[in-house]
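Title: Prediction job returns without error message
Component: structure pipeline
Severity: low
Priority: P3
Assignee: unassigned

Description:
Job completed but the reporter wants confirmation the result is attached to the right record. Sequence as submitted:
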Amino acid sequence: MPSSPRPLRKLGFLTIGLFDEADPRRGHESTLEIIELGERLGFDTAWLRHRHLQYGISSPVAVMAAASQRTSRIELGTAVIPLGWENPLRLAEDLATVDILSGGRINPGVSVGPPMHFDEVKGALYPDTADAEDFSYERVRRLLDFVRGKPASDFSGVQGFEVFSDRVQPHSPGLGRRLWYGGGSLSSARWAGEHGMNFLTSSVVKAEGGEGPYDFAQIQLSHIRAFRAAHPDGADARVSQGLVVIPTDSASPEQRAKYEGYAAKRTPRTTSPQGPARLMFAPDIVGTSQEIAERLHAHAAFREVDEVAFALPFTFEHEDYVQILTDMATKLGPTLGWRPGA
């Protein structure tokens, strides 16, 4: 049976950082302003989606670096970096550098698998090695090793006037404990636990086994429990849930209509598994903070977590995000037992 709801310990939000191709700076500046607002409102974490060859954040590490210099407390994460596009050694260097610059506030979330539309992009991404690239969990393991300080070279010492290290520099000691795996299957949940990572579970999971009917919350709950059963920290292993949640406490009538219309268009995909991967999508939750809290307390998976990264809808305006975040921090969070950061 699900446990009783835990008081919410960490409140976070996730943004895709959309921009107009004709004015990309404005969109990126809006993302940074939203992160600054999140810190002022007391949010614990701000997470960045990762999009390649689209009009969203293609370089979340660079955006985190910029945000780290405009904030002082809020933690900054990625949800998630698809490692099929990355060299784990180079990414480890970038993440450690930004973690040092931020004062140890980075929470990198990653996933594996072939890059989206790989057949169309492999000639540009891996022109000579596409057929040899390994997109399995091994790519995550390499990143973990490099971030955690295992050797990346057989050579260290002095050569001429230069000094060389055999591990990634700079080394950020705490970063290895703040790596997250974004997973939607039982196998990924178990793998993340076995390798001592934290676990990001979103509004998308895989419907695995049997003929259904499938219940999103119960599937997500099974992933959380499988992760913790495999993790050295057991029940204390960190899990963050990322549902789409839109409070309307201070929204205008026009905003409420927009939000309800957005959710309604996305509802049909939540009724059954979608596509060859049999993905199950969680319904978006729109309403007052009290209404949202009631639905979350009835959600079997939410009752098992004390950290969230509520996902902001993709296509809203800057002013909408200001309203949504303000209601999350001042209305919804306290209703869920959360207290804002200092």
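Comment from assignee: result matches the submitted record. Residues 10-154+164-335 form a domain with the TIM Barrel fold (CATH 3.20.20.30).
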